[in-house]
Structures are given as C-alpha cells and as structure tokens.
Amino acid sequence: MSLERFLNQAVSSWMSAEGPNSDIVLSSRIRLARNFKDYKFPTVFTSEEGQKVIDAVYQSVSGHPFSSIGTLELLVMDDLQPLQKRVLVEKHLISPYLEKNAVLGACILSENEEVSIMVNEEDHIRIQCLFPGLQISEALKVANEIDDHIEKQVDYAYDEQIGYLTSCPTNVGTGMRASVMMHLPGLVLTHQLNRIIPAINQLGLVVRGIYGEGSEALGNIFQISNQITLGKSEEDIVEDLQGVVAQLISEERSAREALAKTSNIQLEDKVFRSYGVLSNCRVIESKEAASCLSDVRLGIDMGFIKNISKNILNELMILTQPGFLQQYAGGPLRPDERDIRRASLIRERLNMEH
C-alpha cells in the first residue's frame, strides 16, 4: 500500500460496495473526537507536543488487533503537496480543516479506506469510520473498538460529569458526530426538501453539503448529522439519526413514485438530456457535471438507464473534482483546462461501460 494508491484510486471500498438502502443512502459515518489528558490541545500546543501526539497515536494503533481494517499507513500533512491533500479531502478521508489549518497534522488510513484517524486536527484524535449504505450502528461498533483500544494505552481528557473534553464546545460530551450522506433528487425536484429541513433542525440534527460544514450540496447529495453531543448517549444519537434517515428514505421514495406517475416522460427526458450532455460534452464545469451525474444516477435507480452501473457514477463524482483532475493531469490546471479535462474524462469513463 502506498500514498499513490490512496491518491489514484478514486473509489474507496465504502463507495463501491452495496449497502442497505444504497439507492438513496451513499454512506454512513461515525467520527469520535478525543484528546490526551496530559497534552495541550492542538490549538495551543508546541511543535514538540504535536509530534509526541502523532508518535503516541501511531504507536497505539500500529499493532492493532482488528483484522477487518487491514494495514494502517501514516500520512503526515507537512510531507504532502497541497494537491495531494485536496484529493484526500475529495475522497472524504481527511477534513478540510486538516488540509489547510492543522499544525503538525497527520492521518492514519486503513487499507480499505473505511477507517481514517485524523491526528492534531482541532482535537488530538478524530476517529472516522465510513460504511456503505445505511450502517450507522456498524460504523459506531468499529469506531468504539478502535477508541477502546487506544484508550487502554493513553489517558483521555475526560470529565465524569461532562464527558470527553474537546477543543470546540459543540463536541463536548460523547465527542461523536454521526452522519449519513444521502442522494435526494426526488425531494429537490418536488420542492419538498426546504419544507423538511427546518423540521430536521428542530430534532437536533443538521443538513449540510457533500463535504460537511460550509460546503455546497452538489449533485443533490446532502449530509445529515447530529448537532447535540452533550446529554445524550452515543446509542441515543444514532437511534435519533436513524429514525430521521428512515423517514427521509420513505419521503424520497414517495417523491420518486409521484414523479413517475405525474411527470414520467418529463423526468425521463431530463435524465437522458443529462446523459447526452455527459456523453458528448467537450467542456463542463463541476456544478453542471454534478447535476447531470445526479440525474443519471436517478435514471439508473428508476430503471430508465440499464447499461451503466451506479459505481461508475460514484467514481465520477470523485474523479471530476478539481483536486483529482489535477492529480490525474500531473500538476495544476487553470479552471478552463479543468473543465476540458473533466469533460474528456467523463466521456471516456462512460464509453468504458458499453
């Protein structure tokens, strides 16, 4: 396993595998924020302390007993080029914060890319587990196993009344963020999502874009996650999120059925127009590409398009991002050059399916 493999392989195993309700739920993620008791938090620590944290975390997991995770590899952010870090963000393996702001940041990645342990981000450790489809409980189980393994070897910053102590007050308590990435074109096309989002917010959950806080919902892909980490158990947070996601799945299926009954030929036309654009374009911007890919994915799920797998679209969602395009090109590209290369890559990958 090498850095090149992480950078050049667009689709992680959690994206290519089928999971429960994977026609609507792309992935489930658990992230646990933890800090070491005897070290300053990353926002104020010294370089020496930061390096000690990296060494301690890597040493604690390098001989891990988890057969499902496979080999672990340490990537130090200062050793990577800006473009390489951007690719890791686009693959959801590191956060935008670790990419741009972390001092002495690092990431420990599993061979199958389902586990990413970010080191010296806002907190000393952020354990992330990504699973395909709706598998929040399964992701939590693996995250807890890794967390328990590390905690046997180091003392965490923990308060008996409050819970785990974190750099950001919004993570204090369980330190857990549970999130689900969903493809919701039906609710967008029927103009129902804007009505649903306020109701979700009232339940202590938040709806964000594809890369989390502050990001856009490209290609009708949304991330639903918990806002509350204090006063609830991990299991309660997961149960609440699963209940809302189950309702969203039901609403999205109903919206697709309604579209099929009332606007079937218009929907089919929209899908095949987008497929035509992707198959023939010579220049395409990332927003248009994401929108067309969403339409084609919906067309596959609804049976309009039968000769393309969903996996190729998962791959193209990553491959057409700016970082990946430039990684493939071997260096920086101007925006207009990226648009030309994006179009060429999409045509090439779609032709491979025939």
From TrEMBL:
A motif (RDXXRA motif of the pArg binding pocket involved in allosteric regulation) lies at residues 338-343. It is an enzyme of class 2 (transferase). Residues 24-255 form the Phosphagen kinase C-terminal domain. PROSITE patterns: PHOSPHAGEN_KINASE (PS00112), PHOSPHAGEN_KINASE_C (PS51510). Keywords: Allosteric enzyme, ATP-binding, Kinase, Nucleotide-binding, Transferase. Its EC number is 2.7.14.1. Appears to be allosterically activated by the binding of pArg-containing polypeptides to the pArg-binding pocket localized in the C-terminal domain of McsB. Belongs to the ATP:guanido phosphotransferase family. PANTHER family: ARGININE KINASE 1-RELATED, ARGININE OR CREATINE KINASE. This is Protein-arginine kinase. It comes from Robertmurraya siralis.
